[in-house]
Amino acid sequence: MRMRHWVMTVVVALGVVCGCGSDPMKEGWRQFRDGELDVARATFLPLTRDAQRRAEAEYALGEIDLASEKYSDAANRFERAYQSRPSFAMAAAAQGEALLMLGRKEEAYAAFLTALEATDSSTDHVPRIAGLVGDAYHTTRLTRVQLDNYSPHFHPNGAKLLYTTHFDGSANLAELTLSTLESTPLTDARLTNEYAGRYSPDGKTVLYSAVQNRTMAALITHQGSGSGVRNELFFTRDLATGADTPLMESSGNVANPTFSPDGKKIAYEAVTADEENLDVWMMDADGKNPTRLTTNPEDDGYPEFSSDGKFLVFLRTLAENVDLMRLDLSDMSVRQITHTPRDELSGVFSPDGKRFVYSRFTVGDNVTLVSRDWQTGIVTTLSTSYGRNIQPHVSPDGTQIVFVSDRNDYLELFLMDLNRPVQPDTLKRQIHAIIARSSR
Predict the structure, then answer these.
(1) Which of 26, 114, 127, 207 could form a disulfide with 136 if both were Cys (CB 3.0 to 4.6 A apart)?
(2) CA-closest candidate to residue 34, choices 380, 374, 308
(3) Euclidean distance between CA atoms 11 and 8, whole angstroms
(4) Of 269, 265, 267, residue with least CA distance to 232
(5) Phi/psi at 125 (nearest 5 deg)?
(6) CA pseudo-torsion sign 88, 91, 95, 100
């Protein structure tokens, strides 16, 4: 397999609530959300001739161009939106994002400063700008050892994390208590790797994958794991007794298991033997009744349940890149969610289902952390800190995101506090400092 924004409440500022209806603005956002970009563009274009809705329509068209990576067109659209409403700070911030993607950094930073000086009553544009120059919210490093740590997952009580730590040539599961940052090993296997751990919704069980070979390589599966031989086996561990139960009779080409919100099902990826490609599968929580869900000739991997359990989001390898797809479990219909030339990586829903936090490749091997508003389809950036920012998981109360980053050389766990956005004055100083450094 070649598998190689926390979104602001801009929809409130725009007066937009997605859904079907007679309002063309609402309908356009619904179309944008569902990936019907050309249809949405045709819906928004006539609204630019309405003086009362021009700013909103130009902004919406800019978001379509941004999602399509037509950055020059997006910059022009956002500029027109801001000119139509000089207090429209989000439009100025979005223009800066488009200019930044074009490499026009000086103009981008000027647009950011313009947005920060705007008299908009909303401050939703501030985290959007902050995520484009660093971290959008206060971020704390949780692990400080010269070892790779990855695959974090919040316990349902929000007080601790399950994660994989790589030491002595093998990967093992451990728990991290957030109040003390003390780590407790859960597994200590010497000849296998245990990773990709997930708590059950009731917090009583851990689901994990064991690779039946010892390796010095960290098992980072932030994308589908590919159709090569994996030789893995899924287990559940009873946290009260420590007993492990295999969910399969023998190891196979499977990976990335995850519980459904009610804990009754497990979605995972597996290589279909007769076709030798990766597909999304689902089975009962006890390992029975495995069922193939996708039959695409390309590779499908890394499934994630929606918060209500009604659909899955997964990664599909397309002609030149990897995109997010949606699989409705009621009728097995599949719809493409992202349409960018870049590769998207795995992600997770917020508990309320309103946001999907995931990662995507940018320049070189850098990977940014982003969030997609599931109602509007607008994507905003949470972190552009250097390196890879991957494998996010959202806390049960929706106020924190734990993720993995190698900004300090090793893969470490970081915690983003969504209640602590970067302050405007701090952000202004940060941008001025960036401008000063770039002018030297």
Answers:
(1) 127
(2) 374
(3) 8
(4) 269
(5) -75, -20
(6) positive
| 264-282 b/e (C-beta count within 10 Å ≥ 16 → b) | ebbbbbbbeeeeebbbbbb
Alpha helix (H) residue ranges in 275-315: none
Which domains are seen in the chain, by residue range?
10-135+425-438 (1.25.40.10), 139-421 (2.130.10.10)
- pLDDT tens track of the chain, all 440 residues? 444 333 333 333 333 334 444 799 999 999 998 889 999 999 999 999 999 999 999 999 999 999 888 999 999 999 999 999 999 999 999 999 999 999 999 999 999 999 999 877 788 899 999 999 999 999 999 998 888 999 999 999 999 999 999 876 788 999 999 999 999 999 887 767 888 999 999 999 999 999 865 454 445 544 444 545 567 889 999 999 999 999 987 667 889 999 999 999 999 999 877 777 899 999 999 999 999 999 988 899 999 999 999 999 999 998 778 999 999 999 999 999 998 888 999 999 999 999 999 999 886 678 999 999 998 899 999 999 888 999 999 999 999 999 999 988 889 999 999 999 999 999 999 999 999 987 76
Q: Which two structure tokens, joined as six digits, stand for 385?
A: 């800190």
185 backbone dihedrals φ, ψ, rounded to 5°: -65, 140
pTM above 0.90, yes or no: no
Give CA angle at 12 (9, 17), nearest 5°: 110
| Interacting residues of 410 by C-beta distance below 8 A, sequence separation 6+ | 145, 146, 147, 148, 149
Q: Which of 360, 364, 329, 363 has its CA nearest to residue 345?
A: 360
- On whether the CB atoms of residues 52 and 36 are closer than 8 A, the answer is no
